[in-house]
Amino acid sequence: MLSHAAIAGIAAYQRWISPYKGFRCAYAAVHGGPGCSGFAKHAIQTHGFWPALPRIQERFRDCRAAYETLQNVAASQCCCRAVDEKLTAGDEPEKKSQKRRCTDDACNGACAGADCFTCFSFL
């Protein structure tokens, strides 16, 4: 009875809340596979409510770690805008693309002057 109620609650969340919240499960974003709600639903269906709880709690801990990983990646990378440096006299036009640099005031200079591929290496 408790398993059926939990599965119905998860299904309602997946149907009416999750599609509209604007983000996805951090664990699924980092590792792929189902999100935490899908994992919990499957665990309850497979093992029952009480035996599934430790597995679900472990998954939530892993999801928190994945969220922190995503936050660290976002904090360490710049949201850079590519800008062209002015060509100096004698530069060949085809070298212009090699002179692109990243700059973004939001980065607080963390990647100012770095090449754009360095700034976007996490993509």
Number of helices: 5
Terminal CA distance reads: 45 Å
* Low-pLDDT residue intervals, each spanning 5 or more residues: 80-89, 93-101, 103-123
- Biggest sheet architecture: 2 strands, antiparallel
Radius of gyration: 23 Å
- What fraction strand? 5-15%
Oligomer: single chain
General form: globular
Q: What class would the helix/strand composition place it in?
A: mainly alpha
Helix % is 40-55%
What is the H/E order? HHHHEEH
Mean pLDDT: 76
Write the layout of secondary structure elements.
Blueprint (H helix, E strand, L loop, with lengths): L1 H16 L8 H6 L4 H12 L1 H28 L4 E4 L15 E4 L12 H4 L4
Antiparallel strand pairs: 1-2
Helix pairs in contact: 1-3, 3-4
